[in-house]
Design goal:
Layout (H helix, E strand, L loop, with lengths): L3 E4 L2 E4 L4 E7 L3 H4 L2 E6 L6 E6 L6 E2 L7 E6 L4 E6 L8 E7 L10 E6 L1
Parallel strand pairs: 2-10
Antiparallel strand pairs: 1-3, 3-8, 4-5, 4-9, 5-6, 7-8, 9-10
């Protein structure tokens, strides 16, 4: 069973940056593409980026241009560098597989103040 642990959440002022980390068990990064998601008030859970086992990360339109994903397949980990954060980015950020999707972890809480 794949377990996912997100970390690095916290509070930041608008315009600031945060770096989130994700670690997966069971060699999940070798099994499938991994992604970053978020859940913000008033919206469904959104896919932010897909990091394939090989090739470059594909970013969705949600926060495109404000995100950078780095991954280490061997260590089953990846980071999400977020910048130019806005109050409406406040929410819970998750990592997970794209296909398949594993059981969700607790996510990382992000709060962006005005």
């Amino acid at each position: 069973q794949v377990q996912l642990v997100e970390s690095g959440g916290g509070s930041v002022q608008a315009g600031g940056s945060l770096r989130l980390s994700c670690v997966a068990s069971q060699n999940a990064f070798s099994r499938t593409a991994m992604g970053w998601y978020r859940q913000v008030p008033g919206n469904q859970r959104q896919l932010l980026a897909t990091a394939p086992r090989g090739g470059e990360t594909v970013y969705s339109d949600v926060m495109k241009g404000r995100l950078t994903v780095t991954k280490d397949i061997a260590k089953n980990s990846m980071d999400l560098q977020m910048r130019e954060l806005k109050p409406e980015d406040s929410g819970v950020y998750f990592c997970n597989g794209v296909t398949p999707i594993y059981a969700w972890g607790q996510g990382a809480q992000v709060f962006v103040s005005a």
